[in-house]
C-alpha cells in the first residue's frame, strides 16, 4: 500500500546520507584551515542531516519497508571554501525541490504523515540554504579577509591559552 512512499523515503535517505558525508568532509577541511565558524556550520548541518536520516528511517520501518543506506553520490574533493559553499547552496536547493515534489506525490497517494515529514524537511533545508547563502554573501562582501579573520581568532585563542592550557584543539568550541 505504501510502496511509493517507501521508495521516496529511501531516495531521501540516499540524498541525506550523501549530504552528511560531504558536509563532514567540508567540516574536516575547514577545521584544518582554521576556519572555525564554517567548520562548525558544516558539522552542525551534517548532524541535522543525520537526524533527518533517522526520521526517514523511522517512517520507512513504520511503513514496514527496509531502509537502504546507500549514498546517492561520492564525496567530492573540494578544498576551496567558496566552492564548498557553492556546493552546499546547490545541494540544499535541490533537496528543497525534491522534498516538495515528494510531499506532493505522497499527498496524491493518500499518505499524509509522510507528506508532512517531507514538508518538515523542506523547512529545515530552507534554513540550511539560508545559512549557507548568508555565509556566501559574507565571503563575497568581505573576500578572503572574512576567512582569514576566522583563522586569526583560532590563533589568538591558542596564544591566550598559553602552555598550561595545552593549546586549542582544531575542533575546540564545536
- State the CATH architecture: Up-down Bundle
Distance between the termini: 44 Å
Instruction: Give the tally of β-strands.
Output: 0
Global structural class: mainly alpha
Percentage of β-strand residues: under 5%
**SSE succession:** HHHHH
* CATH superfamily label: Ferritin, core subunit, four-helix bundle
Q: Number of helical segments?
A: 5
The CATH top-level class label: Mainly Alpha
Largest sheet: none
Work out the helicity level: over 70%
The value of Rg in angstroms is 19 Å
Mean pLDDT: 92
Task: Indicate the overall shape.
Answer: elongated
CATH fold type: Ferritin
Poorly predicted ranges: none
Number of domains: 1
Using brief descriptors, characterize the structure shown:
174 residues; mainly alpha; Ferritin; 5 helices; 77% helix; elongated
Question: How would you describe the overall organization of this protein?
Answer:
This protein is mainly α. It has a single domain (3-154), classed as Ferritin (Up-down Bundle), CATH 1.20.1260. The chain is built from 5 helices and no strands. Helix 1 (3-32) runs antiparallel to helix 3 and helix 3 packs antiparallel against helix 4 (112-142). The longest helix is centred in the C-terminal third of the chain and has 31 residues, at 112-142. The radius of gyration is 19 Å and the shape is elongated. It starts with a helix and ends in a 13-residue tail after the last helix.
